[in-house]
């Protein structure tokens, strides 16, 4: 609030049963509806449509996208902004796989799957960014709009396609090392179906980019 940067926080809640909307309503009362914009939807409609829904209400030139469960820590946002200004980047992506970035709270299996997926993606797609499946990113607003028009993937592949399409369209990407902390409450589900759909999506991107 003391950075001199004009900002708003847009919270998209897809009818989650964990009380997100109630917490957001309390924050709205404390900080005002000009800073906290709660934009709920009746049911779970997917990440891509949540991005589009959020963009409709965003008034700034840049958009930071992050998870609301604090697995993405707000303390990294000033670093994203500094990085963007430093290189005038179109996208600044948080990376768990460079510098002092890392993951906390995952078991060995989950870490191996994530590392393996990232390695496979690097080999096949040569994206020029070190973390393809993370979603903590800063986008220039018009760049995010263009990418949303191009991207067709869903699930885990969606974040990967955003970076691959960005490279394809000649957008510049900077990276900031982040610490990802797995959620304390609730579960992140990563089953066989998700892994199969990831591999299918990866091969589709390899064939079409």
From TrEMBL:
Required cofactor(s): Ca(2+); Mn(2+); Mg(2+)
Q: Which CDD domains match?
A: DPM1_like
The Swiss-Prot or TrEMBL record describes its family as follows: Belongs to the glycosyltransferase 2 family.
Q: What is the lineage of its organism?
A: Eukaryota, Metazoa, Chordata, Craniata, Vertebrata
User: This protein is called what?
Assistant: Dolichol-phosphate mannosyltransferase subunit 1
What is the protein's quaternary organization?
Answer: Component of the dolichol-phosphate mannose (DPM) synthase complex.
- Where would you find this protein in the cell? Endoplasmic reticulum
Per the UniProt entry, the Enzyme Commission number(s) are: 2.4.1.83
Q: Which GO terms describe its biological process?
A: dolichol-linked oligosaccharide biosynthetic process; GPI anchor biosynthetic process; protein O-linked glycosylation via mannose
Q: Which PANTHER family match?
A: DOLICHOL-PHOSPHATE MANNOSYLTRANSFERASE SUBUNIT 1 (PTHR43398:SF1)
**Function of the protein:** Transfers mannose from GDP-mannose to dolichol monophosphate to form dolichol phosphate mannose (Dol-P-Man) which is the mannosyl donor in pathways leading to N-glycosylation, glycosyl phosphatidylinositol membrane anchoring, and O-mannosylation of proteins; catalytic subunit of the dolichol-phosphate mannose (DPM) synthase complex.
Quote one Gene Ontology molecular function term.
dolichyl-phosphate beta-D-mannosyltransferase activity
Q: Which reaction(s) are listed as its catalytic activity?
A: a di-trans,poly-cis-dolichyl phosphate + GDP-alpha-D-mannose = a di-trans,poly-cis-dolichyl beta-D-mannosyl phosphate + GDP
Q: In which pathway does it act?
A: Protein modification; protein glycosylation
Q: Which residues form the Glycosyltransferase 2-like domain?
A: 6-147
